[in-house]
Amino acid sequence: MVILTGNKKIKTAVFISGKGSNLKNLIQFSKRKKSPLIIKIIISNNLKSKGLRFAKIFKIKKKVFKFKKKSVDEKEILKILKFERINLICLAGFMKILSKSFIKNFKGKILNIHPSLLPDYKGLNTHKRVLLNKEKYTGCTVHFVSPNLDSGKIIIQKKIKVKKDDTPKKLAKRVLIEEHKLYPKAILKIFNL
Q: In degrees rounded to 5, what are phi and psi of residue 97?
């Protein structure tokens, strides 16, 4: 992991695909005095991603890649990350799977947040599956990204109770609230702050 020296903040890229609520949360966290991050660039695979508006609001560079040719786009992204001297990547609702070689380039420096208590419910439609299986608890997990989907080393988790009247939408909303608290906690934890 990157070592913090003095007052230097860690140059971070956030990858998004959708609304960007975790992105917004990370930007706000990066503005706090005790935060080790500075967000230098936002990368998305979706031109219509609502989260891209935060690039404009907070004056952060943004780049969109369609991932039509994954290997070509990933090479281009790596060039940009190198140019920006990025030391940490935070995936925040990024709906593309990064290649093994891309992950190797950033080994131990890519974080992801997932809306379940991993290793349970990897992948998509988490809340629907949790409810179908009548689970009593669910939650969210921040983990290091490895070449296997949602299988990297777990940094931190938060457990919440599933309510009787929960729908996938209601549950997603409650888990998201916890995600917003958990992501900054995980970052502080890995930098021993």
A: -95, 125
